[in-house]
Design brief:
57% helix; 320 residues; 7 strands; alpha+beta; rod-shaped; seven-stranded mixed sheet; 9 helices
Length: 320
Amino acid sequence: MIRTLGITNNQELKMDFPLEEISKNSFEWYWVDFDEPSVQEELLLSTFFHFHPLAIEDCLMRLQRPKLDYYDDYQFLVLHKLNENTFEAEEVNMFVSKKFIVTFHKSPVNEFDIVRSRLQDQPQNWERGAIFVTYQAIDKIVDSYFPMVYNIEDHLNTIDDELNYQNNAKSMRYVFDLRSDLLHIRRTILPMRDLLYRILNSERFALIKTERAYFGDVHDHLIKLTEMVESNRELTADMRDSHMSMNASRMNGIMMILTIISSIFIPLTFIVGVYGMNFENMPELHWQYSYFIVLSIMIFIAVFMLVWFKYKGWFDLFKP
């Protein structure tokens, strides 16, 4: 589907007009949006707009890294938006000049609908031209990253508050899933930040002072997003280290319990082993109270060793 929007030389808004009207040169600037185009509509990039073959190739081949290319009378931008369900990057292409914007995307971009609606309601922005609309489109795409990052951050904070021995393993599986989502977001945000930095420092993009301020604001948002993602990745790393420490502590506790049990039963096993030998000349075997005496000695040894271990502080290792 192809959607059109344009501002005429008389400062009137026209929407959904046929492409043939563009040739009449009656528009101060216009925006053509290729929204999930068909094969026939894709051909218009070459046959109607006569864009460079390399730029068209970048539109049709997925997935290009965010970038800025310069051509004779327009610039070609590759942007990435994030799928809010899978956190996978989806490519959005823009051909930008002072006269027009042509956007091309094979998946829905709801942010463009918001920009179109805003243009209808804000006629004071019509005279700002195509570059300002480009800023609005990029700004809405970048703004769409924030809810995803905030959502992940909230989940991590909740897990961090509730992390304990009982839900440790289950929570960490979720943490690793969130860490994977952060990696997908990071792979999108960093190239987008570099793209905005290049736009701001581009002489050929020819931004005026006010336009530079708007694009600078988008760049600041991307810097903030980068810091949030890195902070959350550090939090997941801390939680991973905490998970490993808790597992190590738990394993040490288990080994300590087994050590205490083994230490108590070693002398008891020795006594039982001695009196389990089948020698005939063992006078204790014929004593009337020998069984009770040996059993008392064994109980005394076990109790004495437990008291001694407690005195040495071994049981303190089990305290949370």
